[in-house]
Structure formats: structure tokens, C-alpha cells
Task: inverse folding
């Protein structure tokens, strides 16, 4: 973070330093969690059900200080410096604003119904070939995560790449008020989280529109030319530069000669070949969006190629793993919606080729009234792509099985489980050696628990 001392911090957040030395240097700030507390780190102690546990942990931890409200001040062990505030929650946002105001970095916001994390990682990898880059941590992408991400900003950073998710309308708008991005990327507009947005695709588009409206004057907007949902976005009044990316339709950055290979995907843009170490045409779209950002910020073709070739594939996103019995496991279990699940099924078909293939598909949550139609849509695609076997997990996912059978998929090749526990044992007992097995479900199901007992040693590629 930016240099600040304990006394300055107290003044900045409108608090009072009642214990400790004003000139104590602060290296980092954490909000709520005591996990990373150590000398040089200040804890903003928020009120929550876990407060008794946090207070207990403070007894054995060291810190540069604790920011707390007066009603818990007497519970803070005396070896911790102490700043009293009326509300630690309000105080952390004051510090967040200060951090942003100190930074001269160019901010990039990335949102979309699918592909946000991969696009963020690709973009950060490309830009880091030339700039000092701060990227949002893991999947910390909603408004409540802004303080944690902004505390990672420091004077060395020239670019900040922020993944912007949302749980409701207004979430991205509030993120933009703090971030003030100069470049905005919208990967696509689809069904993800539609259940929390009134079951309306128009509302999903409205939520993504908040990034467009939140860009700095004269900013750059990067949009998917092939995505039908993105046509719902309103760009007529946008006063800035618009860059498009795509494969099927004319676009500023257009991918051609897209092909699967053993170690990922290859494609061409304007005669130059690019490689990404992960599978799926949908990931080529993510790469095209990242190329657009790189070109906008003056990254050479060679460095864009290197950035894509070496980007860290996000955990549980089409993660190839060696399994027992010679299995190839594709762990795509982090989250799911119909668009991303269908994209994953297409990857399964391409990777398996002539090998025995198994699709293990679980419930897709947060689809609201679209849940039944979304699961049926996936089932129809299963019947079309014809994996060797379909395994569903969860009550909603049973609709995938029913739909697949209705569309001609053989019922003898379908197995449905209402719960997760028996899945891995069933696979190990019944699925032939050397098979390719794909796992996909919403986060709540924790489908990766079925992957773990099937793992061999190492990753593939």
C-alpha cells in the first residue's frame, strides 16, 4: 500500500489514536480477518458473528495496530496499538478512497456473465510484460472486495486490472465510483446471476451497462461483436473509443483459424499466431479481449504472445489433471451457468476425440425462473454432442438428464445422483481406463470434492 504512519491513519479515518506511537510505519492493512496479521499490519476489526474468535486470535498475534469501535476497545489486548473510530466499516472506505487518490495507475475494469477471471488473468499477464500491474485477487470481484483489492495498490503500480462481478444492480456502479476506470471490458451478457436480477436479461445488461457509464470521460470500451446479449448494451451516447473483438463477425480484433491442440488453443489475429495454455473457443474470446487491451496500451505483438502463452490458468477453470486409471480429468467446477457449461461440453468433445468421455454436471444456481429452461438447454446440447456417458449431481441437474434423454441421448448412458458423496466411487468403479472426464457445477455444490479422490499426480500440459 502507499506509505502511511499510524498517526496519519488515525487522522485520515477520523479516529483517535489512544495507544501506540504515531510514527509507526504501516506496511499493509487487513479488513476483518486476523489470518495475515503480523508486525507492520493494521487490522480493521469489523463487527460480525466471528468477532469473539477474532478477539481470541489477537491474544497471540502481533500488529501495527487495531482499528475498532469503542464498544469493543476494552477487549483488544494491550500489546496492540489502538485507533478508536465510530465505525470500522466506514473507516475502511475512507482509507480505500485515499489509496485510490494516491495512485497514478491506469485502471481497467473487466466484467461479463462469463470469462471475467480468465480475461483478467490474461490481461494482467500481457500488461505485465511492460508495466507494473496490480490485479484483483483471485475471485474477489464484488463491491465488498474493493477495500481488500485497493490495499494492494502501491506507488510502483502503473496499471490496475480489476475484475468486476455483481450480486445486484448498482454493484458495478459503486465499484466504478471508487475505481474510476479508463478502460472497460465486457466479455458477454448472459444468464449468470439472472435469478437475483428479476429473471430479466435486460436487467443483466443494465448491470453490465454500469461499467460503460462508469468509465472516465474519453475512456475506451471493449465489447464482444459476436455476443447476442451484448447487443442490449447502450453505446449510442458513449463518448470515447469503442473496440470490438470477435471471431464470426467483423471486429477490430478478429480471431481466425481457431484450433484445439494438446496444450491449449491456437488462433490468428492479423496474420500473427497466438497460443493460450487452456482449452475452449470461449477462452479464445477472452484472449481477444485481452489482446485489445494490450494493443490499446502499446504492448508489442511479441509481448502479447508471451503474456498469453504464460498466463496463469485460474484454478478450477478447465484445469487439466492426471487421474487414476489413466483418466484425464478436466476440473471446471468453480462455477456454472448454461453458457459456460455448454462451452465446457464442447471442450470435452474436442479433447476426448475418440476416447471414452464422461460429462459430470451439477446444479446451476442463481438462474431464478430461467433454471428449468437453462438446465433443459444443456441437456439438449449433451444429446447433440454425444459424450459416452452423462452423470448429473443434484435435484436441478436431474433436468439435464431428462432433457438429454428426451432429445435422444441413450438412457442407459445416464446416471443421476441427488447428492455428491457417491459420485467419485461410481466413476472409479464403472468408467473405463483412459477416459476423459469433465466436471462442471455451480460453486455451492463443491463438485471438486468428487475430483479429488480421482486425481493422480500432476497436471497435464
Result:
Amino acid at each position: 500500500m502507499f506509505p502511511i504512519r499510524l498517526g496519519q491513519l488515525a487522522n485520515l479515518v477520523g479516529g483517535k489514536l489512544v495507544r501506540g506511537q504515531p510514527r509507526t510505519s504501516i506496511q499493509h492493512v487487513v479488513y476483518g480477518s486476523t489470518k495475515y496479521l503480523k508486525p507492520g499490519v493494521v487490522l480493521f476489526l469489523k463487527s460480525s458473528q466471528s468477532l469473539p474468535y477474532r478477539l481470541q486470535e489477537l491474544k497471540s498475534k502481533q500488529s501495527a495496530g487495531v482499528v475498532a469501535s469503542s464498544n469493543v476497545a476494552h477487549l483488544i489486548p494491550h500489546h496492540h496499538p489502538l485507533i478508536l473510530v465510530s465505525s470500522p466499516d466506514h473507516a475502511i472506505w475512507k482509507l480505500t478512497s485515499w489509496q485510490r487518490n494516491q495512485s497514478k495507475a491506469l485502471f481497467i475494469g473487466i466484467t461479463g456473465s462469463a470469462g471475467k477471471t480468465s480475461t483478467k488473468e490474461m490481461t494482467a499477464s500481457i500488461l505485465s510484460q511492460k508495466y507494473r500491474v496490480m490485479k484483483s485477487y483471485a475471485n474477489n470481484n464484488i463491491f465488498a472486495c474493493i477495500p481488500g483489492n485497493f490495499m494492494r495498490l502501491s506507488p510502483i503500480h502503473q496499471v490496475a486490472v480489476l475484475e468486476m462481478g455483481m450480486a445486484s444492480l448498482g454493484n458495478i456502479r459503486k465499484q466504478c465510483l471508487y475505481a474510476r476506470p479508463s478502460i472497460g471490458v465486457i466479455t458477454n451478457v448472459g444468464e449468470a446471476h439472472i435469478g437475483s436480477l428479476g429473471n430479466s436479461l435486460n436487467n443483466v445488461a443494465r448491470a453490465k451497462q454500469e461499467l460503460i457509464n462508469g468509465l472516465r470521460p474519453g475512456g475506451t470500451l471493449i465489447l464482444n461483436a459476436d455476443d447476442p446479449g451484448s447487443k442490449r448494451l447502450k453505446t449510442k451516447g458513449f463518448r470515447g473509443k469503442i473496440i470490438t473483438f470477435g471471431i464470426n463477425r467483423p471486429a477490430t480484433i478478429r480471431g481466425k483459424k481457431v484450433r484445439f491442440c494438446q496444450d491449449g488453443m491456437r488462433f490468428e489475429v492479423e496474420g500473427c499466431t497466438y497460443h493460450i495454455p487452456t482449452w475452449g473457443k470461449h477462452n479464445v474470446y477472452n484472449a481477444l479481449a485481452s489482446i485489445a487491451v494490450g494493443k490499446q496500451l502499446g504492448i508489442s505483438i511479441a509481448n502479447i504472445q508471451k503474456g498469453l502463452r504464460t498466463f496463469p490458468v485460474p484454478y478450477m477453470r478447465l484445469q487439466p489433471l492426471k487421474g487414476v486409471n489413466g483418466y484425464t480429468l478436466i476440473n471446471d467446477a468453480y462455477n456454472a451457468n448454461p453458457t459456460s457449461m455448454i462451452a465446457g461440453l464442447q471442450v470435452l468433445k474436442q479433447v476426448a476425440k475418440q476416447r471414452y468421455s464422461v460429462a459430470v454436471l451439477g446444479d446451476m444456481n442463481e438462474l431464478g425462473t430461467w433454471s428449468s429452461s437453462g438446465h433443459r438447454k444443456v441437456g439438449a446440447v449433451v444429446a447433440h454432442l454425444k459424450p459416452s456417458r452423462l452423470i448429473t449431481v443434484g435435484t436441478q441437474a436431474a433436468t439435464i438428464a431428462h432433457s438429454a434423454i428426451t432429445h435422444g441421448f441413450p438412457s442407459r448412458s445416464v446416471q443421476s445422483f441427488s447428492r455428491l458423496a457417491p459420485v467419485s466411487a461410481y466413476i472409479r468403479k464403472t468408467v473405463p481406463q483412459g477416459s476423459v472426464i469433465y466436471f462442471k457445477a455451480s460453486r455451492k455444490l463443491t463438485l471438486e470434492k468428487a475430483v479429488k479422490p480421482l486425481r493422480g499426480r500432476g497436471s497435464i500440459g
Observations:
- DSSP finds 14 helices and 23 strands in the chain.
- The mean pLDDT is 95.
- The CA atoms of residues 168 and 197 lie 6 Å apart.
